[in-house]
Amino acid sequence: MKISSHAVARMLGAWQQGPGPAHQRLSDKLRLLILDGRLSLGAALPSERDLATVLGTSRTTVGTAFRTLVEGGYLATRARTRATVRLPGDTAADAPAGTDTETIDLSFAAPSAPVEVLHAAFATALEQLPRHFERHGYDRYGIAELREAVARWYRRRGLPTGPDQILITSGAQHALALLTRVLLSPRDQVLIDHPTYPHAITTFTQARARLLPVAVTCSGWDAEQLRAVGRSADLAYLIPDFHNPTGMCMSTSVRERLGLACPTIVDETMADLALDAPAPEPFALHMPAAVSIGSVSKSIWGGLRIGWIRARPPLLERVERSRPTTDLGTPVVEQLATAALLNEDLTGRPETLHRLRGRRDALRQALAEHLPDVHAPRPPGGITLWATFPGPISSRLAAVAPDHGVTIAAGPRFGIGGAFERNIRLPYTLPPDQLARAVRRLARAEQALARGATGTHVPAPIA
Ligand SMILES: Cc1ncc(COP(=O)(O)O)c(C=O)c1O
């Protein structure tokens, strides 16, 4: 879309007023228009000459302002075409990512940021930030705006919740660590899904707990088994919504029949990523005593580092009191931005879900083509496939794969006692062409392994 000089001039308003050189005022004002979405992404600006005439300024002023915006990543230019609006970090506008020599990282199951959405949320956050300047900024429960926004997120999903039931953390992992500290003692027994999220395993074992694994299979959870094991457990940790790594969603009938007697933490980090069916109801609707943890890391971006705990106020008070030994609160700007995202209901955006569906299909198709012996059921949501190889090669494959340009998370990291040696977790958060390339490389790594290759690579960090 082309934008005329007169339209730009109208949007700019009285840009000439204010301190500093004219080109800086102009570039600042144009940047704000881009961040506010008034100059939309991809829009073609008028020529420097035309805009300078309409604005009654020199061509040098406009040219310098445009150059500043290009350097900051807010404009893209190509020879003999108009400058177009972009945002910094917009990979579609950058050189193509994942060139053939670059290692493709399939060990992190986390999406890249929705650039435009995040820019708008941070613009709102910056507008609201000065309200917080009069206070000290240390808030162990989190700022009121975000506690209310998270409470509303639960209410929208059918679970009555007040802000006094919410404590803001720096991500769901932080929430889990804080709860582990107040709920668990050495030698306590923790019921876990098996497989489960690896950092939960480490969190519990470092707290010197013993783990009681209960299988999550491609048919889901077994309520009777969970109840039976739950009788000996001091704590349960479940990921009922689009489970990491299998992507399974616990059925309503299992939720209704579960009634675990021990304190139960439910990790709802993936709740907004329902791909094939409506999003599940919050777990605490069926088990009101359940402590829920959540975050925007998978639905928006892990770099926000915002999560939360939903629990009864007395438990939150214990968490709040124990918090200062590790941290004194969560950064305010990120909290304000997350409140803006939640208030505008942007955590389960149709665009995000549509893109994930396409990527899930692309990954499964590439597996069918290049690794036909691998079984990878289609998960109803989340961001990962739990792939099964015919033989127990997972750890060796993860050690060899980087030699072929791809890193993966081996199955045993998601379990205890060496289980899941036939599995790997494959996230479908990258664009389809990169997923296809990654699978081709994985197939080459598998062939190399079959020829006797041994890798030396240590396990990659994962999330
Ligand atoms: C099930 C689950 N819980 C918690 C986390 C950590 O989330 P955050 O980035 O919000 O700390 C992850 C990240 O991979 C996860 O998959």
From TrEMBL:
HTH gntR-type domain span: 20-88
Superkingdom of origin: Bacteria
A GO term for molecular function: transaminase activity
UniProt keyword list: Aminotransferase, DNA-binding, Pyridoxal phosphate, Transcription, Transcription regulation, Transferase
Family indicated by similarity: In the C-terminal section; belongs to the class-I pyridoxal-phosphate-dependent aminotransferase family.
Protein name: GntR-family transcriptional regulator with an aminotransferase domain
Species: Streptomyces griseus subsp. griseus (strain JCM 4626 / CBS 651.72 / NBRC 13350 / KCC S-0626 / ISP 5235)
